[in-house]
User: Fold these one by one.
Assistant:
Number 1:
Amino acid sequence: MKRLLSPLTFFTKACGTFGLRRHAIILAYHRVCPHTECDWLLKDMAVQPDDFDRQLSHLKRNFDIVSLSQLLDILSNGSRLKVRPAAITFDDGYADNFQYAFPILKKHNAAATFFIPTGFVEDSHLFWWERLASAIVSTSLKKAEVRIWGDSLNLKLDGTHQRSTTFKKIAAILKYKKLTLINDFLENLSVLLKVTYSRFPSYTMTWNQMGELCTSGIVGIGAHSHTHQPLTILEDGELVEELNISRKMFLDKLGITVDCFAYPYGEVSDFNQNIKNYVHKSGYRCALTMRQGFCYPDDDMFSLNRIGVGGFDTDEIFKTKIYGIMPFINNLRSVGWKRLLSERRMNLKN
Ligand SMILES: [Zn+2]
């Protein structure tokens, strides 16, 4: 990490300190592992262990790292934030969370919450996006034509740029299909591209590993649905099942009651008011999104913002995300200098 205070760091810290309401942050990680352990197409999902270690050091010096439930208590309190709390979360339950992230969390005594899609625990199959990436990365073909739900799609596979574009194009279509249809498509694709999908006995965390996390005293578990499908494509009955099966499995396997939920994918298009109502009615106290932003005391507890941390985030980008240039600029646009300065004066009096 660069020790000198660069102009960008100075500006981002100033944005966090001056003119803005003090904010809380919920960081969202997926994988933590060396980049040699993942396909190049998905490196942005994997934060390298050394980077994660430095990020936690920075957070410890500049934020109060609290558990997600403590952060919710602080937000629910409704008063202006006197500290700057940060909660750390992980989605999808990758085994590398246990192997690489957990020891670093313990080293820093930092709390974290792991959101697990229960249908994939101890499953040796890769997630569908991993299988898609591995097919596109490993095929020796330069082009192919695939049928995708009645349409014919020309796959351009000559070079990394074409493969990256092709991956994004297909992933965007698959995301909103039922899981059984995705699995069928990927089987056909593997034949077409002449590849086989790897299977890993320890690709996701086991129940025993999650049990160890729970007894550490610093880790909480949250629900991330059972099958990790966008909830917006499900009938109401299926939605209720997704919300209830995972809770029941955590109770049966780990003896814990989970009360936090993270929407699969979590973009704004992946939840709506009907879904929020069902999450609330199912007994959860909050739901986290992947909408990028800070958290404030008056936020809706069933659509909380997070800050996604990616594998290509340099230290400077990480700081920009947690202190926030974009929220500052947006605030300036919508509120204006005079109101911003008067809020700052009120902050100083409190
Ligand atoms: Zn997920």
Number 2:
Amino acid sequence: MIGREALNGHVVIVTGATGGMGRVIALEFARDGAHVVTVARDPSRANTLHAQIENLPGRGTLEVVAGDLSTRAGIVAATQTIRARHESIRVLVNNAGAHFPDHRLSTDGIEMHIAVDYLPAYGMMTLLQNELRRGRARVVNVVSDTLRDTRKIKLFGSARPPEIRIENLDDLSQLNSVRGFVPFQAYARAKLLTVMAGYSLAREWAADGITINAVHPGIVATDIIDVLIPAALRPLRTLIRRTMLTPEQGAAATLRLATDPALQDVTGRYFVRESDTPTPPISYDPASQQRLRESSDRLFR
Ligand SMILES: NC(=O)c1ccc[n+]([C@@H]2O[C@H](COP(=O)([O-])OP(=O)(O)OC[C@H]3O[C@@H](n4cnc5c(N)ncnc54)[C@H](OP(=O)(O)O)[C@@H]3O)[C@@H](O)[C@H]2O)c1
């Protein structure tokens, strides 16, 4: 049983809470009296959230841990800080994410979508596993339905999930390589990896009372969308944004997975908003999951 009232005084972690849906999710948890921890590459960008939480009538609090989640060092340092300060974690929302218009490498030599849209979620789950276990935590990974279909226009033909070459799972630097790089597919591939690793960890940790689910929040008017709008349509940005969900509407699906008592035993699932939805076959393949986990663990060792 979790329920929103039960978060009072508990530690919940929300990455990417400086804006967009993350800020709404963090604010809602604080409204329920939680101690919200976020990781931000520029802590001053959490000032608005800080002020909003301070003005709430409840007892919710905010702690900002400085950290750039696109680097191994940033993920390791952030999780070390969290471990030193907190014994147990009740909820972890891996929400931080980004889309890049071209091929870029992180300081670890890893393509940026893998570095931002997959590795932080994996690192937060595995490096904080003892604290998650003590809190019998719910983990929600915010992904994108591009992991089922990378077509931008879906009028004709069938869904086109991102391709994953199984042999590339052994070496993170081979994922989203520069040859044949397509930004939207690279983003989708990183989200699919997050789901894949989540399924495997969910199975392994179910007996400890940890649940791990993934969610597509809908198409939501946030900063990430501006990067995705083609240049020719940018003058219509305000109009286009009006056709999308608000950050509050988008955040609702994540909040439900994190708190709804009816979902307390639900784990290892992917939801398109509120609908339990199957993902591409490779995501369920235990051998592929294992190869991905081994190469990811090697990075954090
Ligand atoms: N909007 C949509 O339609 C949509 C659809 C499907 C999935 N999603 C997913 O929803 C999640 C939330 O995105 P959003 O739509 O709310 O977009 P957003 O407003 O751009 O928020 C992204 C958040 O991630 C943080 N972030 C990015 N790179 C980071 C890094 N290297 N280290 C630490 N934090 C970093 C950003 O912090 P800074 O302040 O430092 O930039 C920001 O707080 C993402 O995972 C996204 O992929 C969004």
Number 3:
Amino acid sequence: MPEFTIDKTFIAEENNHLRTQVQSEYVQLGEQIQRRGFSIDAITKQVQAFEVAVPSWGVGTGGTRFARFPGPGEPRNVFEKLADCAAIHQLTRATPRVSLHIPWDKPDDPAELTAVAASLGIGFDAMNSNTFQDQPDQRHSYKFGSLTHVDAVVRAQAVEHNIACIEIGKAIGSKALTVWIADGGNFPGQVDTRKAFHRYLESLRKIYAALPNDWKVFVEYKLYEPAFYSTVINDWGTAYAVVNQLGPKAFCLVDLGHHAPNVNIEMIVARLIQLGKLGGFHFNDSKYGDDDLDTGSIKPFQLFLIFHELVGAASDSSVENFHPSYMLDQSHNVTDPVEALISSTEELQRGYAQALLVDRPALQEYQEGNDALMALKTLKGAFTTDVTPILQMARMNSGGAIDPVAVFRASGYRKKKAKERPAATSSRSGII
Ligand SMILES: [Mn+2]
């Protein structure tokens, strides 16, 4: 029985119910922003060009450290995960690539995986290695670390795993490796801080040496958890020191959940842009720690301010090495993962469109005139613009759904998948 996919005609029919309304709202917004000096069609085109990768682990229910409550029709293997990712792309037209996690989604036959992905109209983004848990066939445990372990044999195993990820990535058309390690100490005195960092650099140099010339390595930092006292790669400064020592193919990766509460992430983004070392993002949102909530659900203003930095950098000819990769990295605990990834993609486009509406010449004037109130008002004016008609029109123009979550629900996708995928196996999905 062929697997159910959402029909193009069905999307077009659903769009037809909303088309007139969206067109009229689009014209209205167009007039409004034209008075502010912007062309709505130009902004819509930029939104249409926006792409974000979805994580292979994100289409299953992630859960928390305490429990996972799987939903019906969850993907049972990498091929079913690709099918869900393809459905997200079909509805949003903004997620053409999947970021694969090894070994959770390790393909037996990379050529077959590539062919299946191509038949679904999607490809692959950055590879994600995993040395933060032990696998059944593993010789040495990562309980006390991986790339920074005191024992050279364990470090070698972790290096080897990362190189294996590069090899799989080469076979499926990936161009980047993301490295996040859980290494660190839970107690004062447990880890020699300087020695651990030295061992990390030594390990990363070996991985870097195996990187093809047209590849990048992304060093992902995280403040704490699971190392609750001292994490080896804990902040952007440490990650920057690493990528700076590694060379031109190494960049920092900013996961929005990997900072202390209230940290000014948009400033970190600006710093990394200026230093030519911003590799990309893991998008998610949080209230307290690495909550991995849906992007834009808690701090939409912060997301807008990050995009404000990105839009500013894109139009600044003095900025070099600026080609950030966008990836979602969330855990879906109480929502349908496909719906959550669809709406998170939309929230990213929203932040981007709002940032495109910042009156930059005016802002610069206010900044140089030390007019703090008007500078903030300029940003707020863009942030409070309801850009929904732009997002709807962008999707419609690209062949996606005006209201992707509604179309997903109307298609009966989840119910049909629940029938197609009856046997629930224990998922090894997780949160990084
Ligand atoms: Mn991450």
